[in-house]
Amino acid sequence: MNEQKLEIVKSKNLKPKPQSDQIPFGRTFTDHMFVMDYEVEKGWHDPRIVPYEPLTLDPAAMIFHYGQTVFEGLKAYRAEEDRILLFRPDMNFQRLNRSSERLSIPPIDEDQVMNHLTELISIEKDWVPSTEGTSLYIRPFIIATETSLAVAPSQSYKLMIILSPVGSYFTGGLRPVTINVEDQFTRAVKGGTGMAKTAGNYSSGYQAQAKAYKEGNADVLWLDGMEKKYIEEVGSMNIFFKINGEVVTPELNGSILKGITRMSIIELLKKWDIPVVERKISVEELYKAYEEGLVEEAFGTGTAAVISPVGELNWLGRKMIINDHQIGELSQKLYDTITGIQTGKVEDRHEWTLEVK
Amino acid sequence: MNEQKLEIVKSKNLKPKPQSDQIPFGRTFTDHMFVMDYEVEKGWHDPRIVPYEPLTLDPAAMIFHYGQTVFEGLKAYRAEEDRILLFRPDMNFQRLNRSSERLSIPPIDEDQVMNHLTELISIEKDWVPSTEGTSLYIRPFIIATETSLAVAPSQSYKLMIILSPVGSYFTGGLRPVTINVEDQFTRAVKGGTGMAKTAGNYSSGYQAQAKAYKEGNADVLWLDGMEKKYIEEVGSMNIFFKINGEVVTPELNGSILKGITRMSIIELLKKWDIPVVERKISVEELYKAYEEGLVEEAFGTGTAAVISPVGELNWLGRKMIINDHQIGELSQKLYDTITGIQTGKVEDRHEWTLEVK
């Protein structure tokens, strides 16, 4: 793939920006978006930044019928001295390509698209909010656009990147949540698409989500699809437990998403000499440790919440109350460190951040 | 849901109709389509038949991000005396609602939409091709249309029905196919979405499909997602085996699609007093029966092909050649009977067909 010239068409009707402390997640979008097309003969071509506007697609466009689509989610943060930082964006574009491979979508040139993204953010820099806990959410996604009902990979695709200023994920700061261990519905299984960020993985969880909400839980903890025994991930987050001084997170087995926050936390814990292990962990093992009083902390990790402490787990009528519903010391330290690096308040010794010039 | 008045807007630019014996599957669409919208406050509303035209959606419309969508596939056939027949359309709309339930999409009024569909087909009646083996393929589908990146059920949806004249599924008539038994990738698992006709189930099979094609197979036979042991279904078809005089098809276990052709075949076999059983069948059991010379026929069933005889199965380097690559007697009889009923040549004793007036 050759470096292609980026076309830029500026919007003539700039929208008013929302107050940065009162923004519902993912409903407000900036003035411009990035678009790039793929056709078999041309490869990925015509990268462009254009005014944010509706898409026009044939009703028989493949995206509407067979779900050939992948996406990513990352954030731009406003740091000291009005610098704008991205957190490990290279990891997101690598993962986008891994997801695409699973869905038979042609890969993009990661560096090229990352350059175009920084250009887009630089144009939209005034949209990056500054209140603590806020950021500019970045959603790259690829959709199959060929007009055909044949069950086969599309011959054409569209990559788009849209930007949405988002408020603090937690109203009222970091707050431990209650989570239901799902025992009927399955998110993913070996050989399936669990490791890919693809649309179908998300709506397939809505029924379990509704069941969890109904019983007063904030989210779902998924077990493996084979035996409904091993812990996989929470809603759209990875999960960690601190058990008897050791941090445990389920190992990547093909059905768990390889989270970038997850990876960063493992790296931080290793640097801090806190024991951390990626391995299979069954909900029974966790419950046993809980009964023995060994479960010290639990937290979910992901781009949206960074760290989401878990205060309570409900499993087949059994309750595990973790750390007395309080934020654990380690959870708080990880949250402070990662958000500190993301916003330039903590020194970035890992070269995780990329400044948008 | 109350019966709502159907609005009809006729197209002013009618397209030329293709030659009915040379139509690639799912690429040509008729002049009109059916559309209906859902909003939480209004329910399903504004049913209308309008000129076939592109859809305009916000790039943040939920369909592009979380795959909340379901679809159906059925056909209209041109019978003797230019009558137009649908084959068990009530089953398709029942299944659409079952799929919707799994994907947290609000149900439609099945009878109402079926009435609107017959109205649409009656307007497009000249598009129903007449050559043997051809038909008008009908694709109802529902997509989530809310503009939001929140991982939650959409507050608005669009139901559309588009029509596509299709040629004979088999060039050169009924022809046994070679199929690869997939041992790595998984289509579906208990607790997942396998029983629903939803987009994500299809693109997740493209890698296995490509692998099968590469090794000279026409399709994929999926095994269960838990043990990779039990036979589930073929590509987008259900599967049947005639073993030692008895017809066996995998039982519906939550991860297999409840095919309407499958159901009709079971009913026909029962009427004909041919032993038929729905049960778990492992690929090992099948192979053992094959080695003993007991596998007499194999065939896939589905709306597209009706009956697709299987001449060869490839499983981990082992080959099962079925009925010497010839069409089996039972496969042929089932094909002739079902296509005969669909096209009005065979008496419809089951009241399976619905005439479009």
Explain the layout of strands and helices.
Two copies of one chain form a homodimer.
Chain A: E1 7-8, E2 32-39, E3 43-51, E4 55-57, H1 63-66, E5 69-71, E6 74-78, E7 84-87, H2 89-102, H3 110-123, E8 135-144, E9 156-166, E10 177-181, H4 200-203, H5 206-214, E11 219-223, E12 231-234, E13 238-243, E14 246-249, H6 260-271, E15 276-278, H7 283-291, E16 295-302, E17 306-315, E18 318-321, H8 329-342, E19 353-356
Parallel strand pairs in A: 1-3, 10-11, 10-17, 14-15
Antiparallel strand pairs in A: 2-3, 2-9, 5-8, 6-7, 6-8, 7-19, 8-9, 11-12, 13-14, 13-16, 16-17, 17-18
Helix pairs in contact in A: 2-3
Features:
2 domains; 357 residues; D-amino Acid Aminotransferase, Chain A, domain 1; 9-stranded mixed sheet; homodimer; 19 strands; D-amino Acid Aminotransferase, Chain A, domain 2; alpha+beta
Q: What does the model show?
A:
The structure is a homodimer of 357-residue chains. Chain A has 357 residues and is α+β, with helices and mostly antiparallel strands. Chain A has two domains: 160 residues, Aminotransferase class 4, branched-chain amino acid transferase, N-terminal domain (D-amino Acid Aminotransferase, Chain A, domain 1, 2-Layer Sandwich), CATH 3.30.470; 166 residues, D-amino Acid Aminotransferase, subunit A, domain 2 (D-amino Acid Aminotransferase, Chain A, domain 2, Alpha-Beta Barrel), CATH 3.20.10.10. Chain A has eight helices and 19 strands. In chain A, strands 1, 2, 3, 5, 6, 7, 8, 9 and 19 form a nine-stranded mixed sheet that branches. In chain A, strands 10, 11, 12, 13, 14, 15, 16, 17 and 18 form a nine-stranded mixed sheet that branches. In chain A, helix 2 crosses helix 3. The longest helix of chain A is centred in the N-terminal third of the chain and has 14 residues. The two termini of chain A are 25 Å apart. The mean pLDDT of chain A is 95. At the A-B interface, strand 4, helix 1, strand 8, strand 9 and helix 4 of A face strand 4, helix 1, strand 8, strand 9 and helix 4 of B. Strand 4 of chain A pairs antiparallel with strand 4 of chain B.
